[in-house]
Amino acid sequence: MDKPKVVLGVSGGIAAYKACELLRRLTESGHDVRVVPTGAALNFVGAATWSALSGHPVSTEVWDGVHEVPHVRTGQGADLVVVAPATADMLAKAAHGLADDLLTNTLLTARCPVVFAPAMHTEMWEHPATRENVATLRRRGAVVIEPAVGRLTGADTGKGRLPDPGEIFEVCRRVLSRGSAVPDLAGRHVVISAGGTREPLDPVRYLGNRSSGKQGYALARTAVARGARTTLIGANTALPDPAGADVLRVGTALELREAVRKAAADADVVVMAAAVADFRPAEYATGKIKKKDGQEPAPLVLVRNPDILAEVSAGRARAGQLVVGFAAETDDVLANGRHKLRRKGCDLLVVNEVGEDKTFGSEENEAVVLGADGSETAVPYGPKEVLADVVWDLVAARLG
Question: Among residues 103, 243, 232, 263, which one has the least CA distance to residue 175?
């Protein structure tokens, strides 16, 4: 089979060196990659590097190899165009249809999915002109990944950092797998909780669960690839931030509840994939609880945590907001799931069987997605991102 053809555009920012890692991941996973840098990008990484890593000659100009009409053919033959980093200047040119070099010509001729991974200083990212250009590109069907928060050029820190190249690769992979499908969540804000809450007993111990957060992170990655503005609320996870998602960190059920409430205020969809502790200790010991010779420990008194899924379902922040819940069951899986769907009041409930060697920490999952309309969608055992796409398929159909 022919290798998928990817055009990697690189514009002139200090993060250009990180695109070398993205190029390596694309080529090693079986993609035929042609690098098209801007002239400014070559100030950061030279043409010889791009050529050696991709196996193709590198040019910035439409006049090189003119007999092959590269300014037209490069975009026409691509299955995906990804621009990383995409500077403010590149976003402006793309939004306004300027074509003064090979990369901007390629963007105009491409009829495949296009992904932009912006990188710039915070002030540039937040400028109204840039925000308008991003909105224009998204409206036309491009996937513009939200930049990460972190160290920028010099001593500056803020939003505008290029996301991890490995995570940009995951977005590209998901976009390619959907082929020419339009980003059906574009213009939507989705909020996803992931991981497992921990309820502290004393400074060194807690009540928790086995959730790794991998299913919630898969939901976030697939949402980004489908064009959504994505807020991920991670509870005690050790996973890399998905490119394009705004990530909030929480620890306890009460912290998760507060974060979900705030994030859901303008959300179109809320997905509660986190494993929330049902109970927490009635009292927190400020010092480590000690063993005492010859004495049994005092009984541990627990109190109920709030039912966040039921609260979000009952008090939807806006008309038409969809709520998706997750139910981890160990027996009578579907019967318990149907009962929980009615009790929680959500639109969709993803029900799966869990156990010591099932689901938690695994890269795979299987589930049945129950709908408040009586529908049941079985998802066979497979990668968690497959289940994530099924969930978003069902959500997109209900959003209309």
Answer: 243
